[in-house]
DNA sequence: CTAGTAATCCATGGTTTTGTGGAATACCAA
DNA sequence: TTGGTATTCCACAAAACCATGGATTACTAG
């Protein structure tokens, strides 16, 4: 085997990682897994895939070393193989956002930012991690986690209250009415907190959005809390 | 278009970046471009591809926003679209190295580390950036750039001497015989400096290798020098 | 041991990449 | 304009990938 073939073999090996990232569905799975481990069926449902299809994609990810598995009785839990995978995913998104012009329009369409009264509504301001930390310690805001319960349990911002978006309109009473709410969800591209802010605004509350989510929070090595299943 | 489709559209957009990274040949091209801009023909030669094939791959990279072009007369120069692309490439390699066991064996095969007397030889020690900087300012080493002239001209470590590997055995006289040499090339996976150290050892000199290369040097935001064409 | 559940394996058609020659384009130099 | 050169576009066959349904494996609960 000549030098050229050896080099190709090495780079083809690198390309396995790239290939694994080369499908929107797989990236959705990685996005979900960045929030915590999950079973195949749960992933399939969350991503809108058939179990067989989801399993096949997960095998691809596993073959590329991006995820690992843990068996618990009859079900298998998938998780990211390391923090570097979340970082890689985030960098891919950032590169796409920076260098592909179509991303911005599709992001706006997905997050509902083009429908003034549906999603974020009038006030679309966002606050940063630093602001959130400062105002949370000062006690002037309620930090609200609107992700599904399972993801909150896996890891959340310490002190955050969990009300999944689905339940939010029924549980508005749990929020102190005079305190500003800061909602967050999975990451910068996650739609849940946008919709939560919309719901809160329509109920007459002051609410803003953390300008990112759990993914970036963890990558910044900020502390997280976990909670055992209820 | 429902929420699910909008989400898919957005993630498919992200996946364009992943797809572009999903081919060994394209990664080789990115690796070369990380050293500086180049024309299509030059890239095709360096990567062992036909011009048509190289052009097609470059189009894919361009469509994914990873490279940009500059026309100069009849030829077109490609370059990485930004520092973040080099960073992404490096992270893909690092993830592959960490999580795929086959990478290590192929790396060793490519770099010739399995042939004791051919490549690195007996003394395979490497030094770090910090060591290099300290010993270079102390003046106890000669820093040697063994990449092709073109890449040296695009950017190199300040104060480094340029002797492309091809010419090294003919130009040994240019090196002070009593000074230790530290060779570097493109990056951690680049074979040139391994072979250079082998050549130097066989000529009876003390020589080691920087444990990384120009790619990592730039990503660390260390200063570089450039030289106009000779 | 049997029934039931979760996940993977396997086979299959439909779509997308890949590599490659040959034609077309864009530019330069007289 | 007329060559000449660098690059891209086009067409096509081989290979790889995708989604999906049915069979199979691995495990748990009686």
From TrEMBL, chains A, B:
It comes from Cryobacterium cheniae. InterPro entries: ArsR-like_HTH (IPR011991), HTH_ArsR_DNA-bd_dom (IPR001845), HTH_MetalResp_TranReg (IPR051081), Rhodanese-like_dom (IPR001763), Rhodanese-like_dom_sf (IPR036873), Thiosulphate_STrfase_CS (IPR001307), WH-like_DNA-bd_sf (IPR036388), WH_DNA-bd_sf (IPR036390). PROSITE patterns: HTH_ARSR_2, RHODANESE_1, RHODANESE_3. Residues 137-226 form the Rhodanese domain. GO terms for molecular function: DNA binding; DNA-binding transcription factor activity; thiosulfate-cyanide sulfurtransferase activity. CDD domains: HTH_ARSR (cd00090), RHOD (cd00158). Residues 6-100 form the HTH arsR-type domain. This is Metalloregulator ArsR/SmtB family transcription factor. It holds the Pfam family Rhodanese. Coiled coil: none annotated. The keyword Kinase does not apply. Keywords: DNA-binding, Transcription, Transcription regulation. NCBIfam families: HTH_metalloreg.
